[in-house]
């Protein structure tokens, strides 16, 4: 299959994040995407092509326009205050505060448009964010044009970004925009299957009241793990979306035997929905050696994920999400893809 990849992700670099009481170098490293790209070449998965420029029309259908318009202005607002380093929020409009009044000052705006301190912005961030969006839509267009599958090697990732906020290293929800673009270009039903270790809270929120995009998440139980405030099994969709959101929370220590039961059930539900196309939010932070995660999948398990997805027999767009064991991220992510190709 073809891989779509942009070197413009490299401008999103050296961003800091808040971890365990300290501001530290972020886990979401430039080298992540470089290792995956190198492994695509090493195994001869197929050609690596650059993205085409895409406008933000489909993005505006899943994100709030005020949020999308804010993103490219962050760095200049930050430096206008004489600051450098990493733009990060430190205050958020939680219960009991006004979430309906937009502040003017950059610190208030950053808090208003985020849910954590995991989304640092540096000078090259917006260009990387836009390139990641373009990567997803270019790969979506390949599947739309009849390819069995395509790999969007997105960086930064997207599945924690909601309609109006960033979080968890995610700014634009690449998988959600791709699903919307596929709907806008003729697909009647789209399924998003999110296999990242963390719950894809942004994707769930975006499609929660819609029946035309099924969202299925396999993830660490939010009682124990980030993002903590969404991803429980009783969240099943609302209104026209009722029954089209499915969550499979799993406990710390989950291994392939347990995780693959959820995958089998998820795939059966997906097949019942009978979508025209499947979008896989492909995180490999379920890996046993991931530095921020607590599942136990082994390198040999990742091709089995691809094999199971291939058995659905549906056009499939893979969109890169998380995975922080940098040395193994290429082997594990590309393992899913080679498993899919059989
Ligand atoms: C796309 C994606 O996978 N985003 C993940 C965001 C996770 N943010 C919370 C990170 C918590 C890090 N805890 C570190 C523990 C180190 N031992
Ligand atoms: Zn993750």
UniProtKB/TrEMBL annotation:
Keywords: Hydrolase, Metal-binding, Zinc. Residues 34-334 form the Histone deacetylase domain. One of its GO terms (biological process) is epigenetic regulation of gene expression. It comes from Neorhizobium lilium. It comes from the Bacteria. This is Histone deacetylase family protein. Belongs to the histone deacetylase family. Its cofactor is Zn(2+). One of its GO terms (molecular function) is hydrolase activity. CDD domains: HDAC_classII_APAH.
């Amino acid at each position: 299959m073809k891989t779509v990849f942009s070197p413009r992700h490299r401008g999103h670099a050296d961003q800091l994040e808040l971890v365990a009481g300290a501001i530290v170098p972020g886990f979401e490293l430039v080298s992540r995407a470089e290792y995956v790209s190198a492994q695509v070449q090493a195994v001869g998965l197929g050609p690596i092509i650059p993205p085409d420029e895409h406008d933000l029309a489909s993005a505006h259908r899943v994100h709030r326009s005020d949020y999308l318009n804010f993103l490219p202005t962050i760095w200049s607002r930050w430096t206008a205050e004489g600051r450098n380093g990493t733009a990060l929020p430190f205050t958020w409009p939680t219960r009991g505060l006004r979430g309906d009044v937009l502040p003017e000052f950059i610190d208030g705006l950053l808090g208003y448009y985020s849910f954590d301190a995991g989304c640092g912005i540096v000078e090259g961030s917006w260009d990387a964010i836009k390139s990641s969006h373009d990567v997803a839509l270019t790969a979506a267009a390949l599947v739309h044009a009849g390819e069995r599958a395509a790999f969007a090697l997105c960086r930064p990732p997207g599945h924690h970004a909601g309609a109006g906020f960033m979080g968890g290293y995610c700014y634009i929800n690449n998988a959600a925009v791709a699903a919307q673009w596929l709907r806008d270009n003729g697909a009647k039903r789209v399924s998003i299957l999110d296999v990242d270790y963390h719950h894809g809270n942004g994707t769930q929120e975006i499609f929660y009241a819609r029946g035309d995009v099924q969202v299925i998440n396999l993830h660490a139980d939010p009682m124990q793990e980030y993002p903590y405030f969404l991803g429980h099994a009783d969240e099943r969709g609302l209104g026209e979306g009722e029954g089209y959101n499915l969550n499979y929370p799993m406990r710390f220590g989950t291994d392939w035997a347990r995780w693959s039961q959820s995958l089998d059930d998820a795939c059966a539900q997906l097949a019942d929905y009978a979508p025209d196309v499947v979008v896989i939010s492909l995180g490999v932070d379920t890996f046993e050696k991931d530095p921020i995660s607590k599942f136990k999948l082994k390198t040999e398990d990742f091709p089995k994920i691809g094999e199971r997805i291939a058995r659905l027999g549906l056009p499939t767009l893979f969109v890169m999400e998380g995975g922080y064991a940098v040395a193994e991220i290429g082997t594990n992510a590309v393992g899913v893809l080679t498993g899919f190709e059989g």
